[in-house]
Design goal:
single chain, about 160 residues, PH-domain like, 7 strands
C-alpha cells in the first residue's frame, strides 16, 4: 500500500477534495459471529477518507489499479444524520446513519495496528510488519494508526 500522501493524491485525482489526517482503513462490519469468522480471512479493505463534501469509501485494490470515481462509495455530508463509534473487541464499529440507510464499518484499533492488516496496508510492508523493522519504528509511518483518533472524532463531532 502507499504512503498517506500518495493515497490522498489518488483520492484527489478521482475528483474529491480530501482532508489531510482523515484517512483510515476500514472493512464492512460483520452482522454476526459467522460473518466475523469469514471476514477474518477476507482481504477486502477500503480507504475511508473524509473529504470536503463527502465521506468516501474507496476499495484499496482500486487505488493500485487506477482511480475511478465510479467504484467509490460517496456519502454526501449533508445526507449523514448520525454517526456512532463503539469499541467492539479489537476494533471500532463505525455506524453511519444516512438518509438512504445505515452503513456499518469496522476499523482496527491502533494499539495493535503494526501486527494487523491496517498496519500492513498503511505502511506498505508485509509479513505482519515485524522482523523487518520492528513495530516501534513503524508507528511513525503507519498513517492508519496516526489518523484513527482524529478521523473517528471528526466523524462523531462534525457529522453527528
Amino acid at each position: 500500500m502507499a504512503k498517506e500522501m500518495k493515497v490522498i493524491e489518488m483520492i484527489r485525482k478521482a475528483g474529491y477534495e480530501p482532508r489531510e489526517g482523515n484517512t483510515i482503513i476500514v472493512k464492512y462490519a460483520p452482522k454476526n459471529m459467522s460473518e466475523q469468522i469469514v471476514q477474518f480471512f477476507s482481504t477486502e479493505f477500503y480507504i475511508l477518507q473524509i473529504c470536503k463534501d463527502f465521506v468516501v469509501l474507496m476499495p484499496i485494490i482500486n487505488l493500485s489499479w487506477g482511480r475511478k470515481k465510479e467504484v467509490a462509495l460517496e456519502i454526501p455530508i449533508e445526507d449523514i444524520l448520525n454517526v456512532t463509534v463503539t469499541e467492539e473487541y479489537l476494533n471500532y464499529r463505525i455506524r453511519l446513519e444516512t438518509k438512504n440507510g445505515t452503513i456499518d464499518l469496522s476499523a482496527q484499533q491502533k494499539e495493535l495496528s503494526e501486527f494487523r492488516s491496517s498496519g500492513t496496508l498503511a505502511t506498505g510492508i508485509g509479513a505482519l510488519n515485524v522482523g523487518i523493522m520492528g513495530s516501534k519504528s513503524l508507528e511513525k509511518i503507519n498513517w492508519h494508526r496516526n489518523n484513527l483518533d482524529q478521523t473517528l472524532e471528526a466523524l462523531k463531532t462534525v457529522y453527528a
